[in-house]
């Protein structure tokens, strides 16, 4: 079929060889990681957060996911390890003074540098565009380039001054190997937190049980029974008689205390009521005698 009219087919048109593997454009991959949210695939805008694996998200998108996890999202697999807001950290980023915004080349008559980053390293000045490795500190959320942390070795944050350790450093948008290591560290931290919680609950239960046993009242019958079992003969009878007599004496001593307390409370109430009544003109202390009453009527008469 075909090949008429002087057409000469070539070999690659007739013989089908193996398909070439499609390679992802590196520039497009860098743009997707460093300028777009890993969950909603929208442009990154403040506030920007990162997880324990070093991925970048818009905080609004993560909160929407946590509120409704059943909704369908384009890249929900990237957020399965986030259980709550405690698993993310808001980043303290440094703005790039040369960044003019997204619409600086609206007319198309200017050269647009794709690799221009919105943020830079506050120490070295490198742009956060994917060409240089960047890290953030879990303790404070400040972002630095890896070169700055290597050249200026300190245990204090360069930006805010908070202390940090090597375990607090998380690489942003790292390789697969680095992400696997960060995942192992994350699982270890969560396992330790679970063991601490279980220990605290056990300690609280152990503290509460002896307190309840101490606070439980003892029955008088049990004490008398124990005493009668230890004693023999006349001693048992004396102990049995002593039990009720002791209880009756304690009840008698408690009765006068309760009666005196009730009398005091009644007296206090009467005094308070009298003081309150004396504020009004209808009280007996406010009434005038017949000698004090005048023969004429005023606007505020005191005739009772």
UniProtKB/TrEMBL annotation:
Extract the InterPro entries matched here: Rtf2 (IPR006735), Rtf2_RING-finger (IPR027799)
Composition skew (Basic residues), residue ranges: 191-200
Q: Which domain of life is it from?
A: Eukaryota
Q: Where is the composition biased (Basic and acidic residues)?
A: 265-275
UniProt-annotated stretches for the region Disordered: 186-304
Compositional bias annotation for Low complexity: 237-264
Which Gene Ontology biological process is one annotated for this entry? DNA replication termination
Instruction: Cite a GO CC annotation.
Output: nucleus
The entry assigns this protein to a family as follows: Belongs to the rtf2 family.
Listed name of the protein: Replication termination factor 2
Q: Top-down, what is the taxonomic lineage of the species of origin?
A: Eukaryota, Metazoa, Chordata, Craniata, Vertebrata
